Amino acid sequence: MDARFLDIAEQLLLIEGELRTQGWWDDVPPSAEALSSVEPFSVDKLDFHQWLQWVFLVKMKQILEQDLPLPNASGILEMAEMVYADRPQESLGLRDALKKFDQLIVDAR
Prior knowledge:
It comes from Pseudomonas weihenstephanensis. By secondary structure, the chain is mostly helical.
């Protein structure tokens, strides 16, 4: 098991918590069509918070649970900064959690 798994699991919980705190957590999943997007961050079919909840968190949890290799790179913070440029204070906690996630991935290089 990768030594970062526990730290990453903690960051995923913090990301989920921030989504819930801001009211960006959905109880109903998007359609199968929306979830099948092949665009980066599913920008053609999902809002960024939906992508975080229904794609990113799900995939990262599968990686941890199945002891699969972690990604080689992560640039999620950059996307969050673009998406939430007009809401810097509101998104501060989420962006901080995503920054720490990105750093955990980069630290393995």
